[in-house]
Design goal:
This protein has 198 residues and is of the alpha/beta class. The protein is 31% helix and 20% strand.
């Protein structure tokens, strides 16, 4: 799949994250949610349908992905969901002026190792402004050599692994994929570490 088109597919991680949101839908009304790297926006749209106040974002350098977010909103009768350009690792007026958030969503954003620190830099910035916020993320395990553990320590973040069985997402039709091959899906919740590192 060519790089510019990453955001034009509903990747398996998005389906799994959408399942997690649906499973926890009772907790979503009124929660302020930001989806980063939204692409087709499946998790963000599910959150909006469940009553969350959602903002969708993707790279300001990928106007076709931002347009795809807007099109997804219109097709799902959510024309008032804001779509903004946020590029990971870059301080921009859009990032600085974001309203408070409770939940940051990111499905399969940990795709290219060169982007991992930029993603976590942006997440850390948002959590510094919103210390109670959590980053709910799903990703495909593509290589045992690709890890964010050292970056989590560097940015004073902690993570909790969420077993897919705990929200009925460990099923072939949810986590199976032929894009770009079959991989294990994982989910974690990332938050600020306490001053003692926990």
């Amino acid at each position: 799949v060519p790089l510019p088109q990453y955001g034009l597919y509903a990747w398996p991680g998005a389906v799994v994250l959408a399942q997690y949101l649906w499973f926890h839908r009772a907790a979503l009304p009124g929660r302020r949610v930001l989806e980063i790297g939204a692409g087709v926006s499946l998790p963000g749209l599910v959150a909006a349908k469940c009553g969350a106040e959602v903002t969708l974002s993707d790279s300001e350098e990928l106007p076709q992905c931002l347009e795809n977010c807007r099109r997804s909103c219109l097709l799902n009768d959510l024309p008032h969901v804001p779509v903004i350009g946020l590029t990971w690792g870059r301080v921009s007026p859009e990032l600085l002026s974001l309203a408070p958030v409770d939940i940051i969503l990111g499905s399969d954003v940990f795709f290219e190792p060169k982007d991992f620190e930029d993603i976590l830099t942006t997440v850390y910035y948002l959590m510094e402004k919103n210390p109670h916020a959590q980053f709910w993320t799903t990703y495909q395990v593509r290589s045992a050599d690709w890890s964010i553990e050292a970056l989590l320590c560097k940015w004073k973040l902690k993570n909790i692994h969420v077993p897919l069985q705990s929200f009925n997402a460990y099923k072939e039709h949810l986590a199976g994929s032929s894009l770009p091959g079959r991989h294990t899906i994982e989910m974690m919740i990332i938050s600020l570490a306490k001053s003692d590192g926990t």
